[in-house]
Model the fold of this input.
Amino acid sequence: MSTDVESDQQTLEFEGGDSFEEFGGPEAVFGTADFDDERPLRPIDWNTLTADEALVEWEDLDKFVKWLRLSYGLPPAVVPPLWHRHDELIWELSALQAARVNAYDPEASPSAPLAWHREFRECQQRLREWVSLSGTRLDRDRPTRQTAWPGEPPYESAVEVEIVDRDADFAAFVAEDIAARRAIEAALGFAS
Done:
């Protein structure tokens, strides 16, 4: 944090001297979905979101994950570039985001951030385990392996792909997810 001596205003700066304003302000860095006063804070159930809700939540979660990995210097062994392609990572990171927003709510207990950091430490261990099991890395990714139970047909072998452009992959992933949700909504006769 730096203070402009003439105006006595404080500015939060990132490593390298970049400030919030250079990134579009706090909303662009942290996202806005969980700070909407019209919506109550709630856990995100990715299985029940409409297409419109999912679009907002995907964008918000991506901003949170980017902030989280940079703020805490998290390696790809904890938060890999294609975290969004692994359900176990989506659910964990989404829960962590909701817990953080709750911990830093103005009405939260002053000790809530410490509790969040304890939860975050436990979360990091689970993320490491899931990243290790899934096989996703900094430069390569493959779908999480599935094991067929007796009587089930075997799953196809997971094909590993090179990660070329993480942001482009995220955009394509979200577009596919939103299209699938819209197709379900159309089949069920819902308007989004």
